[in-house]
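Fold it.
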Amino acid sequence: MTLAIALLGGMVGYLLGSLPIGLLVGRAAGVSDIRAHGSGKTGFTNALRTLGLRWALLVVAGDLAKGGLPVLVGRFLFDEPWAAALGGLGAVVGHTWPLFAGFRGGRGVATAFGAFVAVSPIAAIAVGVVAAVVLAIWRYASLMSVIGVALGLVVLVALVLVDALAPEYLLFGVLTALAVEFNHIGNIRRLLAGTEPKLGQGGAPRPPASA
């Protein structure tokens, strides 16, 4: 029964994560496909570049919610840490490779943070403050994301070690951190090369794919 509930939690997370919030908000704002602009992703940063702050805030709110909801379902409806952990992980996977949007989504940062808030609100606030400081100083959303998710994993491991959090959440933390960092490989290369656009920059239409 525990395995079935855990898998159900993961499935709920993936389906919620697959909701293409950025794509839907973009269409409401008059952009047929936000992925045809900027970074080609559906998350907050590309929404800000392409749609502006008001619409981007709707995107980030939706992405946060779809990360947090499956964790809360696992914790309070199923009362099963594995369901919560797999629900959060599934949401990140769904956001990155969405079933309802041709498996082309975002990098999973806001969705991962929403899940982390549901896992440990106090720890998430601490990570969020550090990430916000990084963004305020350097103005690189990618740098904030890379540092924030790594710090989040460290905090999660510390909470498990002091028995403040169930060890099942280590699976969520490790795999989510790996997924988000993997999704930022290109950004990391551009940061090292000094060519990464800062927050709000780089919203021009993308060139069409070659045949």
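The chain has ten helices and no strands.
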